[in-house]
Amino acid sequence: MLSIRRILWPTDFSTGAGRAFPYAAALASWHEAELHVLNVQENGGRETGMDDSFPVSQDTLSDLLNAQGDPPQHVDLDALTLVQEQRENESPAATIVSYVEEHNVDLVVTGTHGRRGLQRLLIGSVAEEVLRTAPCPVLTVRGEKEVAPAWSVRNILVPVDFSDASVEALRHAKELALTHGAQITLLHAVEEVVYPSAYGIEPANLPGPQVIDRVEQNLAEMARTEIGYEHVVVQANVGYAPSTILDYAEGNEVDLIVIATHGRTGLERMLLGSVAERVVRRSPAPVFVVKSFGKSLLPDAPSSRS
Questions:
Q1: Average pLDDT, stretch 82-103?
Q2: Does some domain include residue 28?
Q3: Co-location of 32 and 54 in the same domain
């Protein structure tokens, strides 16, 4: 099981935030973790009646939890340790990340659509900024998509590019699969190589069956060494990585995607990789983003014990 002591659920009272709450509550119940609820009011931009909505009442939280259907008995809202705080700042994302650092939060669970100012929708910009800068994993849930209940994750997809970061993501996926009793699918996108005509090089042939077989053999070896063969599927498809991942998720009833990010730049602790960014923006399923730096939630990781 992942080592999770504190989970943060940022809320702006939007539908997206509401749909993320059952995931936060379920994970907090299963890991006996504190559940922190944070609302950020922008300076000078408070909406009428917004203050009356915070702290979030137990009845409201119960309604959000039950919106996906009756949760199992072991997801008990009354038994959770809740910590609620409201802050005022010009930057919701920066405030969320500051809260994560101050309280040593292990996981942020957030919707990917929010409100700022006069109920203006952002296309996930707050969530994406949190993804780029938070020093811990982030689980995103799209606000406009119907998703499987948080306690009914049965098929976890892990995109693999054979980097150290994707291996770290796979190890997190293994622990999540053990918690949910879920199957894991390892997917690698074999991209075509196309050179501009100015290079004077003939277009490369599409990767053939031998390439696909070799990639799937390597995926099977990774599955064997990292998680064992049971409840694991390996798949190599030809295509552009983000499209390949999203098409597979939509066509195979994937309930959760676990994906790694790569790199950092300057004072920004992370720059979202193009693949991870596109997957987070368009995925029909929630996305658990594991950072290539910062906190690991693996039970044997030193950073997970701090």
A1: 94
A2: yes
A3: yes
Does residue 284 contact residue 299 with C-beta atoms inside 8 Å?
A: no
Closest CA to 100 of 68, 73, 135: 135
Backbone angles phi, psi at 94, to 5 degrees: -65, -35
pLDDT of residue 278: 86
Chain segment 266-281, per-residue pLDDT in tens: 444 444 567 888 898 8
- Amino acid (1-letter code) at residue 52: D
Residues 82, 86, 92, 93: is their CA dihedral positive or negative? negative
B/e letters for 93-104, b = 16+ CB within 10 Å, e = fewer, are bebbbebbeebe
Mean pLDDT score of the chain, rounded to an integer?
84
Spatial separation of the C-alpha atoms in residues 212 and 187, rounded to whole Å: 11
Q: Residue 234 maps to which CATH number?
A: 3.40.50.620
pTM, rounded to two decimals: 0.87
Q: Over range 182-203, report the average pLDDT.
A: 79
Check pLDDT > 50 for residue 123.
no
* Residue 118: domain span: 6-141
Q: Give the separation between CA 33 and CA 122, rounded to whole angstroms.
A: 30
pLDDT value of position 265: 45
